[in-house]
Amino acid sequence: GESVGLHLPTLSVQEGDNSIINCAYSNSASDYFIWYKQESGKGPQFIIDIRSNMDKRQGQRVTVLLNKTVKHLSLQIAATQPGDSAVYFCAESLTGNQFYFGTGTSLTVIP
Amino acid sequence: GAVVSQHPSWVICKSGTSVKIECRSLDFQATTMFWYRQFPKQSLMLMATSNEGSKATYEQGVEKDKFLINHASLTLSTLTVTSAHPEDSSFYICSARDRFLAGGYEQYFGPGTRLTVT
After folding, report:
1. Which of A33, A31, A26, A19 has its CA nearest to residue A5?
2. A75 interfaces chain B, CB cutoff of 8 Å
3. What does DSSP say about strands A105-110 and A10-14: parallel, antiparallel, or unpaired?
4. d(Cα A43, Cα B108) in Å, to the nearest integer?
5. What 3-state DSSP class applies to B54?
6. Most CB within 10 Å of its CB: which of A52, A95, A98, B40?
């Protein structure tokens, strides 16, 4: 499996500001990447995905950037809202089958 | 669409007993389901891949005799924690892939099951 974090980094942003959440993945051969949002006591929710043949993908209010050179993913959330408060995880996969989750980031939006 | 349920949502059991957790895909068929474990304030750790009609594939370090997985139908996978101990207390989450989602690799997650072993 891939690396698993032992602590949870935190990020606090003001409502309406943009948020940037970063993730370092561990396997340079990973081909599939997904960002998930997890609210307390619930299962993860899909946010956005990207394949290794792309370096940027946009969704509604979210953008994922992939830098394969340094094995880095970022999730940008535009105009962050209180409902965006949650823990965010990136997940990587070689085959699109087994996904391995990275260290999450706890996002708190200040009203 | 693409709803995955888990039952029970929480369970408390005594040390030494076994607990079964169910994962169901409600509106799609899943030949592949996945089981994860999550400790408080930590990431999800993939435990095993559950394959319909065949044996599960376990991740390195996961005891297959302790975490029994059965995927007897296209909509149901079960995880049985045998001879549970307090250190098995965790949040167990399953996910499923839609077998008819061509080219897709998205997994749909269940709401999780909180297991507490006393």
Report:
1. A26
2. no
3. parallel
4. 9
5. coil
6. A98
The answer to whether the Cβ–Cβ distance between A43 and B95 falls below 8 Å is: yes
Using a CB-CB cut-off of 8 Å, the residues of chain B touching A97 are: 32, 49, 105
- pLDDT tens-digit readout, A35-81: 999 999 999 999 999 999 999 999 999 999 999 999 999 999 999 99
Can you give the pLDDT at residue B102? 65
Closest CA to B22 of B70, B62, B57: B70
Q: What does the alpha-carbon distance between residue A81 and residue A105 come to, in Å, rounded to a whole number?
A: 16
Name every chain A residue with its beta carbon within 8 A of the beta carbon of B108. Answer: 46
Min Cα separation B113/chain A (Å): 9
Q: Is B4 helix (H, G, I), strand (E, B) or coil?
A: strand
Q: Which residues contact A60 (CB under 8 A, 6 or more apart)?
A: none
Q: What is the pLDDT of residue B103?
A: 66
